[in-house]
Amino acid sequence: MATTKKTTKKAAVEVVEAPVEETLPQAAPAEITVETKRKILFVASEAAPFIATGGLAEVVGSLSKALARHERYDVRVILPLYQDVKKEYRKEFRFIGNIFVPLSWRNQYCGIFEYVKDNVTFYFVDNEYYFKRPGCYGYYDDGERFAFFCRSVMEILGFIGFYPDVLHCHDWQAALAALYLKTIYCFRPEYQFIRAVFTIHNIEYQGKYSLDILEDLFGISYRYRNLVEYDRCINLMKGAIECCEKFSTVSPTYAGEIKDPYYSHGLDQIVRRNEFKLCGILNGIDPEYYDPATDKALFANYSAENIAPKAVCKEELQRMLNLPVKPDAPILAMISRLVSHKGLDLVQEVIEQALRQDMQFVLLGTGDSNYENYFADLARRYPGKVVSIISFNSDLSRKIYSGADLFLMPSKSEPCGLSQMIASRYGTIAIVRETGGLRDSITPYGAGGNGFTFHDYNAYDMLYVINEAIGVYRNKEEWAALVKKAMTTDFSWGKSAEYYEGLYESVLK
Ligand code: GLC
Question: Measured between alpha carbons, how far is residue 75 from residues 53, 118, 478 in Å?
Answer without folding.
Answer: 22, 10, 44
